């Protein structure tokens, strides 16, 4: 499966416990978050959807879900991997005081993964890898779930071409740190991350 993802996800507490059945979104808080990200833009609310539909927004839209102890943001501008992308990531990470936040960018055609991890609003890990260029960014202490992927490189293998699949790498980190479970698997409790509700906004 080729994934295209531009997602920031923050949770106040262990994500496997924060994300589960019965989460109720706060539309007003979502609108405030969207306006805070783009104060100079005209934002038009265009309805509700779910994460499965929102993972890769059109360029003129974004999706926001704000809950009691969690926040989701899908914004194509994260794909730019530039100062604006870092601003969006940093803002999402600071939106819930004391929360941890993961930012994941994948593309179905460009075989690469950008992942950022924040703890209490502070950036702890920044990694960008591509199949063709290998390790582009590798800053901060590696997270435990990364270790199996880096094993061959740490043992002396070249990183070009990358000896692991960037998509598999990113989805493993998202499952462990952002949601506490795989994105596309329904748990025994009936909860499926892809069904999380989000509010849709169009930037005019």
In total, the number of strands is: 9
Give the strand line-up of the largest sheet.
2-9-3-4-1-5-6-7-8
Please tell me what the overall shape is.
globular
Question: Structural class, please?
Answer: alpha+beta
Low-confidence stretches at least 5 residues in length (pLDDT < 50)?
none
The largest pleated sheet is described as: 9 strands, antiparallel
Helix content: 25-40%
Range of strand content: 25-35%
Average of pLDDT: 94
Q: Compute the gyration radius: what is it?
A: 16 Å
Strand/helix succession: EHHEHEEHEEEEHHE
Termini distance? 33 Å
- Tally the helices: 6
List the helices and strands and how they pair.
Blueprint (H helix, E strand, L loop, with lengths): L4 E7 L3 H4 L8 H11 L5 E8 H4 L6 E6 L3 E6 L7 H12 L5 E7 L5 E8 L2 E9 L3 E6 L7 H8 L11 H14 L17 E7 L1
């Amino acid at each position: 499966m080729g994934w295209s993802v531009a997602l920031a996800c923050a949770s106040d507490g262990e994500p496997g416990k924060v994300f589960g059945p019965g989460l109720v979104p706060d539309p007003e808080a979502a609108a405030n978050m969207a306006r805070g990200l783009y104060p100079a833009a005209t934002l038009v609310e265009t309805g509700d959807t779910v994460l499965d539909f929102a993972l890769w927004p059109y360029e003129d839209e974004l999706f926001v879900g704000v809950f009691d102890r969690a926040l989701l943001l899908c914004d194509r501008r994260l794909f730019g991997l530039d100062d604006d992308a870092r601003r969006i990531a940093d803002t999402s990470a600071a939106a819930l005081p004391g929360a941890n936040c993961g930012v994941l960018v994948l593309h179905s055609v460009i075989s690469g993964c950008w992942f950022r991890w924040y703890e209490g609003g502070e950036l702890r890990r920044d990694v960008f890898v591509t199949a063709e260029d290998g390790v582009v960014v590798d800053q901060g202490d590696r997270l435990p779930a990364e270790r199996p992927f880096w094993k061959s490189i740490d043992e002396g293998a070249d990183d070009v071409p990358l000896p692991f699949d960037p998509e598999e790498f990113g989805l493993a980190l998202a499952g462990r740190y952002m949601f506490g479970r795989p994105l596309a698997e329904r748990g025994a409790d009936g909860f499926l991350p892809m069904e999380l509700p989000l509010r849709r906004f169009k930037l005019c």
